[in-house]
Amino acid sequence: MKALVVANWKMNPISWKEAKKLFEETKRMSGLLKVSVIVAAPPIFLRDIGGLRRGKIGLAAQNVHFEQSGSFTGEVSALQAKDAKANYALVGHAERRAMGETDDDVRKKVAALLALEMTPIICIGEHVRDDEGSHFTFVREQLLTALRDVPQQKIAKVIIAYEPVWAIGAAEPMRPHDMHEMSIYIRKALVEKYGEVGHKLMILYGGAVDGTNVGTMLEHGGVKGFLVGRASVDAKRLAELLRVMKDA
Ligand code: PEP
Question: Ligand 1 within 6 A of 210 CB?
Answer without folding.
Answer: no
